[in-house]
Amino acid sequence: MNIVKVNTKSSCYNINISSGRLKHINESIPIDTTSIAIITNNTISSMYIDIIKSSLKSIHKPIIEICLPEGEEYKNLHTLNIIFDNLLKNNFDRKSLLIAFGGGVIGDITGFAASVYMRGIRFIQIPTTLLAQIDSSVGGKTAVNHILGKNMIGSFYQPISVEIDIDVLNTLPKREISAGLAEMIKYGLIIDKNFWEWCENHIKNLINLDQNHLIYAIKRSCELKSFVVSKDEKENNLRAILNFGHTFGHAIESVLGYGKWLHGEAVACGMIQAAELSSNILNLKRSDVERIRSMIKNINCPILAPKIDIEKWLHAMKVDKKNTNGEINFVLLPEIGSSIIKSVSNKDIINTILITSTI
Ligand SMILES: NC(=O)c1ccc[n+]([C@@H]2O[C@H](COP(=O)([O-])OP(=O)(O)OC[C@H]3O[C@@H](n4cnc5c(N)ncnc54)[C@H](O)[C@@H]3O)[C@@H](O)[C@H]2O)c1
Ligand SMILES: O=C(O)C(=O)C[C@@H](O)[C@H](O)[C@H](O)COP(=O)(O)O
Ligand SMILES: [Zn+2]
After folding, report:
1. ipTM of the shown complex
2. Global pTM?
3. Is 102 exposed, middle or buried (0-12, 13-18, 19+ CB in 10 A)?
C-alpha cells in the first residue's frame, strides 16, 4: 500500500492508496466508534456498498446508509439537513463516525456535516472519483454552495483518514476522468514542473487508467496537496495557489447553474484563461500558454468558455473568497511550475480575456 501523510496544525492523518482498499475499510475505524453513517448516493451505493458493508461486519457496530440526491445542484443546505435528520433520528452521538463514500460533492457535504454535527464528530473520506482522490478528499476544505457563489458556506475540518481504492475508477464515466485530470495537471502547473512534464508524457496511460501510472499520479498529487495544506491549512497565503483556474471556473459554474459544467471542466477552461492573463501580466511565454491549451485539449476538457453575459461573469468573480478590498485576486503563473497571487485592477485586460476565450 502507498501512504501519504498529511500533517496540519489541527491534525495528522494518512492517505492510504491501493487497489482493493475498500475490502479493508474495517482497519481504519477507531475502536471507540459507537455508530457509523455511510453517506453516499444511489449510483455509488448500487455498485460498491456491499464491499464496504461486508468489511465493516467484523467490527459489530450499528451502521446506517444515507443516500443523498445526486449532482452538484444538490450540494446545498437542504441536502445537508437530510444528513442531520437521519443522524438525530438514529441517536448518533459524539463518538459516531461519518464515512463520505463518493465524489467531491459527497465528500464536501459530509465533511461539513461532520464539522458541525454536535459541534464536530469524526469522518473518513472514501473518494470514488479521480478528482476526489487527488484533490477534494485531502486537506479539509468542506462546503456547500449558495445560489450566489460556490462553496460559500463551509469550514476547514480534516478527516481522520482518506482511503483510496483505485479499482473504483473503472466504472467512472470518461467525462469524469477528464475532469479529474484537469485538477491533477493543476499541481504541475502551480508547483512542480517535473510532474507537469511527466503528465504531458504519460497522459494516454492516465486516460486509459493504467494501474501503475494511476497510482504514481494519485500519490504525487496527494503529496503535493499535502505539502501545501500542511504549510497553510486555512488559506492565509500559500494554499490559495490550489485555486489556480478557479476564479474563472467557479464563475462559470455558478452563472451557468450548478451541474451544467463539471467542476473539473470549468477549472480546465479557467486555467487557460488564467494562463492568458499570466501571459498579459507576467509575461508567461506564449509557447507555455499553448502547451497548457493543448494539454487541456488532450484530456478532452473544454478549451473555450461558454457564452456568459460578461457583467454576470465579472459579478461572480467579485464574490470569490480570495478577494480583498473589492479587488479580484488571481492565481497567476510566471512560468510553468510556479505560481503567485496577484490582484488585477485593469478591467480592460480581464474583459478582453473573457471575450476572446468564449465560444
Ligand atoms: N474540498 C476540496 O478541496 C475540493 C477540491 C476539488 C473539488 N471540490 C468539489 O468537488 C465537487 C466535484 O467532485 P467530483 O468531480 O468528484 O464530482 P461528483 O462528486 O459530482 O461525482 C461525479 C459523478 O460521478 C459519480 N460517481 C462517483 N464515483 C463513481 C464511480 N466510482 N463509478 C461511477 N460513477 C461514480 C457520482 O455519482 C456523480 O454523478 C465539486 O463540488 C467541487 O467544488 C472540492
Ligand atoms: O484545497 C484547496 O484549497 C483548493 O482550492 C482546491 C480546489 O480544487 C477546490 O475546488 C476547492 O474546493 C476550492 O475552494 P474555494 O475556497 O475556492 O471554494
Ligand atoms: Zn477545484
Report:
1. 0.99
2. 0.98
3. buried
